[in-house]
């Protein structure tokens, strides 16, 4: 809480400072994590790491797992087991691996047979697991969604997932503060999705790099929690580490009665609400960047290209490369038009659509479905639409929608009504676009191949996707629907407990069952434990080798390694999948001779030099650095990076180097293009050509450099700091008691803060539906 002497702080500063466990001189911070969401794609290697080191999950009470990415969205009427239900072998293995892991590590799990299952970023808020003022992580880039509650929520890679599971902390650094203020009233037909698409169009996909964006202003305050979540969800598409919105009465009303929020009117609830309402930026807080947006400038917005910044009002025309001054942008536009099969100058509303997807963690909440249903009601899906699907974000959203008859509205119109999951947002399950198909989609990424190899994605709001389905072209919803916005003030109610949750998790009786105490790894090492040991990665000192030159901007991790390769439960063997869509002829393993890594000597590259900005943006998949490493590339040199990718490389003993001076970077790229070797000398922080002539100096944070040179493993290092973690946990239990699992709390009240690891009782993990949650 601010005292008179404290300098003015932002919301981010306040929440961040409340979670610092330890801080090093170079700004490296050990941050306590309150909430950890886990899904099947980014966790198998993390659990394997824990197993190999004999480590346990430190705070099962702060960890919640579900399956969402790989699962089919067909009816579950015939569901018996995951093994029988999922046809595709790798998807099945990944889901079953999670089931095994949640059992072995005693974690709460919403499986396929649980009504509460859903997209990880939908179920956290729905259950009240996401709370204001907390730190939330997940091995998933759209963790930013949870920032809508005034939490610091960020995506992490799999190595960091392992770190959080083992230590309940994350090694990080302060981000910069960016304010995006949106004022005014939304025009009819304009929703929060249009706000965020518009913002990304203004600041670009690298606009928020290194920042946490706080969204504020009268327009944001007037939004429901659902609408706020859609905005924070896409903070990652703006390049930001996280997005945040200050909690207010709307937030508090949303949380009332959620199973994992403190019980309304309990002393904890009152204490929590008082604390939550202090969480706002001080009026004179300093911002590193400030952006002001007026709602009158926001129209229903759609994307035309292959980056979320390629957006335009629906009334506009497909842009031409000549509209861009900058060479990199001109080329990006040319490339995007070719991929999207679009002619410059075509009115957006004349573009026919093949498929419609209403779903994803951006727009699959009850409010989204209600808004889309209002547009669809009494109408029919156009005859040229091959498939229009509605994929609710969770089992509970689905149930609620059915209770309101929305499913009937959709199916009467010709939509396909599905079960919850990520579905065609990224198509790790059977829901994909065929090559050349064009989709009106409420998801968040329109990268090449995102919804299926060769598929073409146009991003838009739920009402705009509904309009496209009815018209058969990209369409302006204002011509179809009675004017209304989806920015309703009150949050729509979803029955949050479902069949699966009939009991009160905080009743005394349940407390006897709930014994989810934190596992103190320091005092309970397993026999095979290597905790405390910190060596474990190959050392990085000086690297010499060929460097592959690339000149593309915004190379996203979907391009570095597409979704079909994320189904592995191993870290190795991904080299052949690196840049798959660019490296091979479509649908074959025939190499494209034009692609740089298929040419000599670049097949043997150890370094990649990219002159375009924002390398590794997008998804948090650590498979991207794994694939580079497996190919032989240990160092990337680029002007700037997606934050999560940047972190992920270090965790694998790789070195990402930022060279901001474009002229210097071009000089390095020239050596690479000439097929000559480069030398990267980490101890001296110098890049040289093969002859030893210095080309550039580079910066690297002290702690990271130290870890790379000595091959140190973060988890081992953090384990050495367990006393500081315990001290933070004691403070946390005193000041924010509602954050502990109720089992933890019960024990804490009875005895000392430092609890013994307890045998975990039988719970609802995976197998039993109807038992209470473990909080
Ligand atoms: C699978 C996961 C790593 C990924 C992400 O981080 O975003 C996915 O959710 C996506 O949307 O691409
Ligand atoms: S962006 Fe798509 S794939 Fe990623 S978590 Fe959200 S719904 Fe799932």
TrEMBL record:
The entry's keywords: 4Fe-4S, Amino-acid biosynthesis, Branched-chain amino acid biosynthesis, Iron, Iron-sulfur, Leucine biosynthesis, Lyase, Metal-binding
One Pfam family, short name: Aconitase
Keyword Amino-acid biosynthesis: yes
Cofactor: [4Fe-4S] cluster
Keyword Iron: yes
EC top class named in words: lyase
Biological or metabolic pathway of the protein: Amino-acid biosynthesis; L-leucine biosynthesis; L-leucine from 3-methyl-2-oxobutanoate: step 2/4
GO MF annotation: an example: 3-isopropylmalate dehydratase activity
EC code: 4.2.1.33
Region (Disordered), start-end ranges: 482-537
UniProt family annotation: Belongs to the aconitase/IPM isomerase family.
Name of the protein described by the UniProt record: 3-isopropylmalate dehydratase
Species per Swiss-Prot/TrEMBL record: Bimuria novae-zelandiae CBS 107.79
Lineage: Eukaryota, Fungi, Dikarya, Ascomycota, Pezizomycotina
